[in-house]
């Protein structure tokens, strides 16, 4: 029964998307009907991509393709025996060269920050653990002995130009991510600040960073939402009132999809939230009885007359990713 319902939802979503030029102009129907099986952080699965983080700060972080048949892509990229560092959030592996460690290469500050933020150990162990030395490669979890693609959230992290914000969980509220207001230009700077907070504040039990927008953008979103009539809104119904400081930044597409569908884990639970953001996309729940949302991006408002709660999160994530990939011109076409 559940399988039939999900299949119907995917078909309905696919039909809606085909009627929307945002989607048909960039992706084939098959891309919409199939998720990535990992929370929907990819619309069209690729053979695999590894994130390469050089120790030399003059060299940019870059993404390289790994073939579907590569058994140990990280060994090829690092030229020899490797040391494995587990990542927990999101799941994956960070590899460094074991041979290079014997030669005492320079510390890799960007990979070191990433490992201390996302490593599988406890926060204290991550804060006090050894430095990451030399070039590093990030891939996803192993599958049948093969390296899988690096987590999409980390690929997004390397690609997003900024700004970034710090989120933390405290012993008093261990199930809630609290967002700090300060913005940082780059993710390594935000990550370094997050780790410093964790060292300085004894009540902090976890930290992370999220892609952000400016204070001005938050205020513009709130103002736009208040002026935009919600779908199905009747005369006399209240406007969508939004406090800019209550827009909740998400760490990944899959987390945003989980909020929209109600499939959220306890540490992400924010039952009264009306607006969520990932990168430069904001989704605002409209006031009124009928379920409806506003998608705000590129100074364009796209009304979504849909209730996301019955949707499988992977399907919702596909729609989010397509909105993120759309140009301003494609979004303008969707305005009523």
From TrEMBL:
Domain of life: Bacteria
Protein name in the entry: Uncharacterized protein
